[in-house]
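Incident log, support desk, overnight shift.

02:14 A customer reports that sequence design results differ from what the structure should imply. Their input is reproduced verbatim below. On-call engineer (initials T.W.) acknowledged and began investigating.
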């Protein structure tokens, strides 16, 4: 057990820092291998994430509370040859709202499925939720809570096949899920000031997951187990660390897809022709 004076001091309230994370332990610097560089740890339960220092007093520095333990996913079955419209929230960046969606066949090719046989269906989905970030022992000049708005949209595909050779039998559904893009907006709750807005591609085209905004630069792809976070001068680095961790882990494509319960019909929409 370390002596008290061997624990790393908390970073300054506006200090630019470099963090690396491994197994919910926050390390100082880009390497998550040196035990002497352990700086903080992350505690997570169903609706809350806390960042605490590793001193004997174990002070909670910042916390985040999710508005829902499992975000609601809206699904819209797309008509054959038609367009699916999803209502975009007002904080969506102009470039995100105008981003062209791929042709339907791209999703099937990505999943290694047949697109031309007609026995398929497509559904568009969206996620919209919020997370409130509150300072703990870090209350100081900037001690107001912040709210992170999250919006994601994606595509579900279903390739149908007969459950058996008998055409009177039921249908088997082969479903694949893709997150097209994820958008974030951080707002100071008491003033309504917009702090940062950014979006990142999902996993359709091997999106890297790297994110950069006014608070931090998150380095690492969606599958990285040891992301590196560089925080910006002038902002509380623990707030930046908390937001970056939430964006990288709680709203990664794989985590978003874990919230989805596909709602495709039991038979292909055009099954009467087969």
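02:41 Re-run completed on a clean worker. Output:
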């Amino acid at each position: 057990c370390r002596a008290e004076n061997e624990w790393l001091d908390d970073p300054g309230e506006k200090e630019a820092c470099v963090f690396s994370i491994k197994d919910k332990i926050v390390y100082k610097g880009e390497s998550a291998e040196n035990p002497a560089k352990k700086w903080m740890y992350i505690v997570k339960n169903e609706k809350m994430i806390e960042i605490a220092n590793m001193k004997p007093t174990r002070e909670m520095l910042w916390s985040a509370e999710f508005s829902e333990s499992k975000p609601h996913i809206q699904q819209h079955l797309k008509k054959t040859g038609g367009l699916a419209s999803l209502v975009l929230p007002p904080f969506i960046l102009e470039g995100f709202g105008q981003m062209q969606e791929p042709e339907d066949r791209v999703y099937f090719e990505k999943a290694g499925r047949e697109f031309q046989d007609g026995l398929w269906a497509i559904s568009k989905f969206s996620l919209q939720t919020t997370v409130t970030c509150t300072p703990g022992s870090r209350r100081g000049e900037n001690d107001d809570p912040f709210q992170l708005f999250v919006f994601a949209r994606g595509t579900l595909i279903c390739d149908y096949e007969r459950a058996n050779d008998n055409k009177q039998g039921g249908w088997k559904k082969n479903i694949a899920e893709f997150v097209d893009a994820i958008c974030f907006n951080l707002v100071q709750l008491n003033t309504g000031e917009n702090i940062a807005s950014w979006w990142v591609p999902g996993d359709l085209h091997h999106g890297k997951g790297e994110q950069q905004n006014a608070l931090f630069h998150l380095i690492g792809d969606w599958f990285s187990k040891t992301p590196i976070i560089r925080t910006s001068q002038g902002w509380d680095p623990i707030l930046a660390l908390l937001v970056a961790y939430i964006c990288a882990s709680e709203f990664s494509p794989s985590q978003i897809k874990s919230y989805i319960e596909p709602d495709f019909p039991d038979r292909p929409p055009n099954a009467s022709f087969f």
